[in-house]
Amino acid sequence: MFECVKGTKDILPEESFYWQSLERKIREICSIYNYEEVRIPTFERTELFNKSTGEETEIVQKQMYTFIDKGGRSLTLKPEGTPSVVRAVLQYSLHKKSMHNKFYYIERMFRQEKPQKGRFREFTQFGIENIGSGSYFIDGEVISLGYNLLKNLGIDIYVRLNSLGCDEDRKKYIEKLKIYLNDRKNELCSDCKERIERNPLRVLDCKIDSGNLKDVPDIKEFLCGGCLEHLEKLMEILKSMNIFFELDRKLVRGLDYYTRTVFEFTSSSLGAQDAIGGGGRYDNLFKNMGGPDIPACGFAMGMERIILIMKKEEKKEPLLLYICTIGEEAERIGFLILDELRKEGIRCEKDFLKRTLKAQMREAEKMKSKYVLIIGEEEIKKGRLIFKDMGTGEQEEITFSKEEIIRRLK
Ligand code: HAM
Predict the structure, then answer these.
(1) Does residue 262 have its Cβ closer than 6 Å to ligand 1?
(2) Residue 242 half-sphere exposure toward CB, CA atoms < 13 A
(3) Has this prediction a pTM greater than 0.85?
(4) pLDDT tens-place string over residues 237-260
(5) What CA dihedral angle connects 125, 128, 131 and 133, to 10 degrees?
(6) Residue among 85, 109, 113, 142 whose CB has most ligand 1 atoms within 8 A, to mutate
(7) Ligand 1 lined by 305 (C-beta under 6 Å)
């Protein structure tokens, strides 16, 4: 007996219904906000992620599924979507065709993390990337799309917001932060001790050490005029849009490319894995990847996490008609009626297990069928069928014709 690999999961029909409904809502809201879909490959050259996600990030250091293919190339199953979208924009010169591009994706991602509730090794992200404008209104639009999607799904969330400033601001801040952390090195967990030199910002959102860092220097005090104004104007516009947010100076995010705005959508219903989604502005990424200077902002959400907590609605799509047949000839006729009705776009089903009439009726109820058609030997002889309305329980004999069945169903 085989089982699916640790950290992967099957989505069975009872759950795929919710996935379809979530995907529909995502596509709907993206269309309202004027974002267009892109589909990106499952794997990319490993270097792409080293260069964009960042050499010092946990993702690149520990979590990537990297392999050498038969041609000796180092390839990696994508751990996130942003690098691929940036690559595609540059590869197809999309920024030359349109100065402002708005994309969304629903894609499988792969990270070798320790699996737990809401955390998988293969998971699905819904992400958006808004490319071409440095305006704080764009940060507002991006956050508004994610916020309203989650609200419409009945999820109670708030936004954690921070600014990481520009390169110069961060350099100054990191200098101060390193001094602060080195002074407290003995109190930090073993991972964070190592992070002080390699990636000191990450110490700020370490779950183990967060309690020890109450008086950590506030990055807001290191922001230059432009970055501070960007943050303040964004906060103002979020308030005007009635988006519930909280400024969190410890929010740094786990990817290297962010500048200025970073944010996370958080829900208390998720427990330890409380981030439903996160994102931010990445104004330097295009340049760092060899492209022109193009500002951008985006986010991604874990769809497994959304499914875990979204308000579940009516489950099964009901059938319009279930056909019960008794005897071989009736089964043949029932099967052909089924085929005719399906060609007319009618959702219908019949029994294929030669069950008793009683069992077939039970099945029709289980499938929440609105109507049932009963075909037995007697009925065939009379050239009539029994048509039953499962809602009222009323049944009557009708003439044996496709048109008559369709007339009643419609
Ligand atoms: P991220 O924070 O690494 O950002 O991932 C975004 C979301 O993906 C997380 O908040 C979480 O819901 C989900 N996620 C991450 N890892 C897992 C996992 N192992 N299992 C289940 N869900 C997971 C990014 O990926 C950036 N590319 C977001 C972005 C887009 N920034 C700018 N544009």
Answers:
(1) no
(2) 2
(3) yes
(4) 999 999 999 999 899 998 999 999
(5) -140
(6) 109
(7) yes
